[in-house]
Amino acid sequence: MVAHTAISTSPWHSIIKIKTVMIVMFALAISTLAHLLIGIYPHSFSSSLNPPSGTPYFNQADIKRQGLLSTGKHCSGSIPDARVLDFIMVNDELDALWIRLNELYDVMDTFYIVETNMTFSGVPKPLHFATNRRRFEQFSHKIIHVIVPPIPPEDYKLYDEVWRVGMWLNEMWNRNKGLRIAVDSHRPREGDWIILSDLDELPRASFIKALAHPDRSTELGRQLDQDSPEWAGDLLRLGCKYYFYSYEYLLDHAWNGPVAFRFREPDSPVFLKKGPVAKRNTERLQWLMEEEWVGTGNRLRNERDGDGAYMPEQCHHCSWCFSNITQVLRKMDSWSHQEFNLEKYRDRSWILERAKTGTDPFERSYETYTYIPNNTDVPTYILQHQDTYSFMCKRYGQPNAGFIDVNPNDPLGPLL
């Protein structure tokens, strides 16, 4: 089997009926306004990860004790296996993509790799994955390559004038349209899991394995079983250990990371179930397959701050863990937080000093780090290739802060 490249061609993909938009806006205006406003700023800085009262919550120690980090073998009382599909948007972070594919290849069934020819800040860019596709040839039979077309004028008006998303327009469009194209081009089966995350939010392979091979004799297995009284619904929130620059610098708060949700067809019998969990499940997921609803991907992303069952420490989030300083500057040019793209923060001496001392690059008082030398709680692939990924392991005190394009003997001189 070979990898596929998908692009939207269906008529409804390019035309959003005004009537439908008005109906959706009216129906959701009160119940989801706050939720949508969160979506305007998808990278929330909230440090609170305490789930709401009554939300299913899994302690990491309990998960290990119950044997929920599955071997992948069927057990007595096992639930039918589900496939797990990974949805990620890619800019130029090919090192991070390489690590993710190696780390999760054996436990993921499909990788939806989504890209477009424009950055989140609206700057034209190459299709980096398409250009470098041969580098990833060994993973090709599990890859579905999704190219998101530019936002058409009628949708631009909806996003910019109706929802007023401002600088987040491109990111929201790419996630919403990308998910729609991905699902249409390689349709999941009823009950499959889709992981919706940013590229630098890396789920633990052991957790993905537990999703794919649930066991009813465990608490998690019963929570995943729609016929169990303990069913937690079809949406899970993964908490991440949150690192910055490298796996040496652990932030003092966790990170609301990926959302895992089950794919359901519009006529799924699951939506006929009764009870508070079933009601929440229907409200969250039934609109997934509504063809003309434009906000599915972003609303699912926002569920990381919702009331779905919470799985702590089931992913690593290594933010701004770049191999070279050129990528740092490109990131500042391209990301949605353009309020931080200031000359002060782009100065090389500033970047080097902050990265080698573990200090927030944007002077955010709520972001404080703990230095962890020789950290071993990192993705397995990085542990096995520490020489290759030294910039993810050893920045502290280095004259070049671990950036491979900065000469350690002349940090402010010409780039290598």
TrEMBL record:
Q: Which organism was this protein described from?
A: Mortierella alpina
Output this protein's name. Answer: Glycosyltransferase family 17 protein
Q: Please provide the Gene Ontology terms (biological process) for this protein.
A: N-acetylglucosamine metabolic process
Taken from the UniProt entry, a GO cellular component term is: membrane
Record key words, sorted: Membrane, Transmembrane, Transmembrane helix
Which Pfam family, just one, is annotated for this protein?
Glyco_transf_17
Q: Where are the transmembrane segments?
A: 21-41
This entry's Gene Ontology molecular function terms read: beta-1,4-mannosylglycoprotein 4-beta-N-acetylglucosaminyltransferase activity
